[in-house]
Design brief:
Blueprint lengths: L1 H27 L3 E7 L1 E5 L2 E10 L2 E4 L5 E6 L6 E2 L4 E5 L2 H43 L5 H40 L2 E3 L4 E6 L6 E2 L12 E4 L4 E8 L11 E6 L7 E8 L13 E10 L10 E7 L4 E7 L4 E5 L4 E10 L2 E7 L1 E4 L3 E4 L8 E5 L1 H4 L8 E6 L20
Parallel strand pairs: 1-24
Antiparallel strand pairs: 1-23, 2-17, 3-12, 3-16, 4-11, 5-7, 5-10, 6-9, 7-8, 9-11, 12-15, 13-14, 13-16, 14-15, 17-22, 18-19, 19-20, 21-22
């Protein structure tokens, strides 16, 4: 019996000894490990992110207006050209033959006009003589009318010859115009960025994208700019003259500076996007050592307001709730109230990619729960929390801001 009693006593003592550990384990299972931060002064530059590409503002794609083989190329890809430079010659033999034919037609019609003019003058003199003889009764009426008819017909033939000359001259102008089109001239100062044809290939007069329709592309390297697509929800905040920071995908560590130059008036559905977007053009004011090449993908951050030093917290700490049936939208944060999460309504202001201005006033030292996201999004007012993972610079605490509505936590 003494042995049994001893076993019972040892069991009771062990149960009593392990009870605190079990209780701590049970309650700690409900504790949520969270990150916290304190409101701090931050410099916020409100901005909008948009993606796009680099392009030339001054760029022309040259094509031929006549059909013919390329007889000579005066440039190579990468060469610099000036306005008016001859860059390509299309074979003009057939056009020169047509020119000779048209010039001969003009000469023939000119000679014919001279002949008709002489004939008209001769008939006019005969008519004047016949008229006098007719009035004196020396010739009959039939002979007089016959001569008058010949004069009228001669005048008609003369007018017809003049029209034929005008037609021949128009055909000559057309041949000369086609002949001039065999010489491809650079319309701008720039660089040959693309050469799409070779000597011996046939230049095609066509607006469709078929071989031979595109000869070359010339662009002004000084006119490169950034073209981005801005979502329609953000376009109201974009204005001409706003500054922007541009990062080309090929140079992620070399940001470029720019200024918004143009905002499209009409939205469009861009490829790969479902919503409407507006084209925004940004002039590059400082390339920052980047070798600019058109077609490069890039990302632009357009700053919609000037930098402001405000009290801010990480954006992930802010919870947005919306009730469309009641037309209500509110912002909340969770604060640490001695190990208890307290859901608190706040007012927010400016924001950037990382921080958002907190307009509501928070007392010094109040910890705001910032994550992790899986805990924060499922956090309920009154949950027990463990702030063993503090986040943020606790030495940079916001001073109280007087005159602002908000919350006051003791």
């Amino acid at each position: 019996m003494n042995v049994k009693k001893l076993i019972v006593i040892l069991f009771i003592v062990g149960a009593i000894a392990t009870t605190p550990f079990v209780l701590r384990t049970y309650f700690s299972a409900d504790l949520k490990e969270v990150d916290v931060a304190i409101v701090s002064q931050r410099t916020i530059s409100p901005s909008i992110l948009a993606s796009g590409f680099l392009a030339h503002e001054e760029e022309v794609m040259l094509s031929s207006e006549v059909i013919g083989k390329v007889a000579e190329l005066m440039i190579e890809e990468g060469d610099s050209v000036k306005t008016g430079d001859l860059v390509l010659q299309v074979d003009d033999k057939n056009f020169l033959a047509g020119l000779e034919q048209s010039e001969a037609a003009v000469r023939i019609n000119t000679i014919d006009i001279e002949r008709q003019e002489v004939r008209v003058k001769n008939l006019e003199r005969q008519y004047e003589r016949s008229k006098s003889l007719y009035e004196e009764g020396l010739i009959g009426e039939q002979e007089y009318e016959s001569l008058l008819n010949q004069l009228d017909l001669a005048r008609i033939d003369f007018l017809s010859s003049k029209e034929s000359l005008a037609q021949a001259e128009a055909q000559l102008d057309q041949v000369l115009d086609n002949l001039s089109k065999t010489q491809i001239i650079s319309p701008i100062d720039g660089v040959v960025t693309s050469l799409d044809i070779k000597v011996g290939e046939t230049a095609i007069a066509s607006s469709t994208n078929i071989p031979g329709s595109s000869l070359m592309t010339i662009a002004n390297p000084e006119s490169i700019y950034t073209e981005v697509l801005v979502d329609e929800a953000d376009i109201a905040n974009i204005e001409v003259g706003q500054s922007a920071e541009i990062v080309a995908i090929a140079y992620p560590d070399k940001p470029m500076q720019g200024i918004v130059k143009f905002i499209a008036n009409t939205a469009k559905i861009a490829q790969g996007r479902t919503g409407l977007s507006f084209v925004v053009k940004i002039d590059i004011t400082n390339p920052g050592g980047v070798v600019l090449r058109p077609g490069m993908s890039c990302r632009a951050e357009i700053f919609t307001q000037q930098e402001q030093n405000v009290a801010a917290i990480p954006v992930e700490a802010i919870i947005f709730e919306e009730d469309r049936s009641e037309l209500r939208s509110e912002y909340f944060i969770f604060v640490n109230d001695n190990g208890i999460a307290r859901k608190t309504k706040v007012e927010v202001g400016l924001s950037d990619d990382e921080y958002q201005e907190l307009v509501s006033r928070i007392d010094d030292g109040i910890e705001i729960i910032t994550g992790p996201n899986r805990e924060l999004r499922n956090l309920v007012d009154g949950d027990q929390i463990n702030t063993a993972r503090p986040r943020g610079n606790t030495s940079n605490i916001q001073s109280n801001r007087s005159g602002l509505g908000g919350i006051f936590l003791d």
